Amino acid sequence: MPDPRQFRDLPPDEQHLIGRSLEELQREFDGTFDDETIEHFIVDSYERLAAKAKVKTFIGVLAERFARQRLQAMTQIESSEPGKPGVLFLCVHNAGRSQMAAGWLRSIAVDQVNVYTGGSEPGAALNPMVVDAMAEVGVDIHEEFPKPWTDEIVRAVDVVVAMGCGDVCPIYPGKRYVDWELDDPEGKDLSAVRAIRDEIRRRVEELVITLGVALPQE
Fold first, then answer.
1. Could you give the angle at which helices 97-109 and 128-136 cross, rounded to 10 degrees?
2. N or C, fewer C-beta in 10 Å, the chain?
3. 2 within some domain
């Protein structure tokens, strides 16, 4: 179980949930990572998310999801077999542009690409206008959440798409870097967010082609 001192400020039910999350990840990655490694990732994921959270309710659930993504990235790094291409979308708050791009890529490429997002200064929650704009076109991102970029995820991907994070975006050798200049949807009305959404779709479709992933037939 995680060190209870890490979670002493949480309600008992949240502490219990984190313990269950740890057990679930241990079962899922049994034979791939030892219990100490898995515990490290869930504790570290919790701490990274809690540092920015205004309300810590459900942080346990999000920490499990974040830790799972990071462990999956580690699996890809350590695998000797070629896997699916990976793309990391980065922006400042991981609350708008990067989340829309990830939503589009998951929708367009289905399960043919490993898709990650991150922020240089993650916000507390997704921009609700962004969630609404994506829902209009049938892409549901309401369960996504802002998170920081992490070393293992950058190492696991082939392409890093940066959107406004500037010099603080991570630079790793051997990665393909793409810089997308896009308006920040923060503070904009739905009409303006729709325009950003549609431009991001256009760029994601172009990106998919460069990855050698076939677009579904319309």
1. 30
2. C
3. no
Q: Report the C-alpha gap between 111 and 144 in whole angstroms.
A: 17
Distance CA 116, CA 74 (A): 13
22, 43, 91, 141: which is the annotated catalytic residue? 91
In the annotation, is 169 catalytic? yes
Calpha distance 134→140 (Å, rounded): 6
Could you say which of 165, 193, 204, 207 is catalytic?
A: 165
Q: Domain check: are 14 and 122 in the same one?
A: no
Q: What is the CATH number of the domain that holds 190?
A: 3.40.50.2300
- 71 assigned to active site: no
The yes-or-no answer on residue 165 being catalytic is yes
Q: pTM, whole model, 2 decimals?
A: 0.90
Per-residue pLDDT of the chain (218 residues; tens, 9 = 90+): 445 455 566 667 777 777 888 999 999 999 999 999 999 999 899 889 988 777 666 788 899 999 999 999 999 999 877 789 999 999 999 999 999 999 999 999 988 999 999 999 999 899 999 999 999 999 999 999 999 999 999 999 999 999 987 777 788 888 999 999 999 999 999 999 999 999 999 999 999 999 987 766 65
Q: Where are the alpha helices (DSSP H) in 79-176?
A: 97-109, 128-136, 151-156
Residue 165, phi then psi, degrees to nearest 5: -90, -5
